[in-house]
Write a structure and sequence with these properties.
The protein is of the alpha/beta class. It contains five helices and four strands; from the N terminus they run ββαβαααβα.
Length: about 120
């Protein structure tokens, strides 16, 4: 297995695509409301890396539930094979942008996923 080369970032899917986004991966289980697929410039929709439906509904984007959501989502990620898909992409793309639809730029699944990926040992 090769070393990770990618720099991961996060971006709201409603923001316009940029040249420095690199490989764009939507990490939500549901498609972004009101965003036409042809305007999203999504290279991969990786639904399986998103939080479970149960966890997503319990969190319901309420900031007071974010700490519990983050902890539980990380446990889901520990056993999620879709994380390996992202790590494989990291070996072949210099930049990967994790796209999300939530309104809160700090309390969302993409931020938790970004932290999770960045805390993993390289290689």
């Amino acid at each position: 297995m090769g070393e990770f080369r990618a720099a991961f970032g996060v971006k709201r899917i409603y923001e316009p695509p940029a040249d420095d986004d690199g490989f764009r991966v939507l990490v939500d289980r549901l498609w972004a409301r009101g965003m036409p697929k042809e305007n999203a410039a999504v290279d991969l929709w990786l639904k399986d890396v998103a939080p479970s439906t149960e966890l997503r509904k319990e969190f319901n984007h309420r900031p007071e539930r974010f700490a519990d959501f983050s902890e539980r989502y990380r446990r889901e990620l520990d056993g999620n094979p879709a994380v390996e898909t992202l790590l494989e992409l990291a070996r072949s793309h210099p930049r990967i942008t994790l796209l999300y639809a939530a309104k809160n730029p700090e309390a969302n699944n993409a931020r938790v996923l970004l932290d999770y990926l960045q805390e993993r040992p390289a290689g």
